[in-house]
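Entry 12.
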Amino acid sequence: MKKRFLILGGAGFIGSHLCDALLSEGHFVKVFDRLGIQPYRVFTEQEHIEWIQGDFVSAADIEQAVDGCHVVFHLVSSTLPKSSNDDPIYDVESNVVATLRLLDAARHAGVEKIVFVSSGGTVYGIPQFIPICEKHPTDPVSSYGIGKLTIEKYLHLYHILHGLDYAVLRVANPFGERQRANAAQGAVAVFMNRAIHNQPIEIWGDGSVVRDYIYIADVVDALMKAAFDGGKERLFNIGSGQGKSLNDILTAIEVLLNRAVARTYLAGRAFDVPANVLDITHAQKHLAWSPQVPFEKGLEYTFRYLSNPHN
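Predicted 3D structure (tokens):
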């Protein structure tokens, strides 16, 4: 059955890949993103897409966006883990309060389901055990993580009070084509881009920080499965289930490029937990989902994309 989807943040890294996947299956897609954000590619006449711009904190803009849509993908975040602690009030107002307006608009518009991209790292805080399952304690050490966790709780509340269905995907560290190579996060794309251009790579700490990296196509596959899933489970870790240190990433890049890359080690950052690797068995069991693209293959795809000057 063809559905009408809204992707909040549909022009971004994850959103654009999700948009392409939905369009390829013949669905109608409404993309909502910030003012001034242009389409990431040219769409064909056969593709059913509507591109709208607005402000996520505006009730009127969100009401217009959700109108007529069956499923909403919530990919918007106005802050990063690093910056969120600088102004927690802004973080709450622009993310948590704005999401509450979205939930009200969605239930009044008859939206069937909301799929929310949460954080597979920050909501858990400092791990008590690894790999981290969904039942691990949630003690965020950043306002970003607290905001994500709060939104998860409100989604559950609105399901109880109003019957609004939802799914929460606690996504690890996605990487791949279209990831911004000059952003403040996204180690794989940032490191690869600097290596390609023979620029030194700066690493916070000694490079031993371990994270779970997952290729973008696998993230999109999980989002699609969650949107159509009719089961009772609503909370899923989405990652590779394997940990790689920053030094591991650099080594893999050197193997791919067949040369050494310059690296500079800086002082560690207080908000960086030593390790974070997700247990994905719950998603494998209840969403019939598993990552299909090995890290090295995803790294190769990212290299090809960043090496193309026309991207």
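Annotation: The longest strand covers residues 113-119. The first helix runs from residue 13 to 24.
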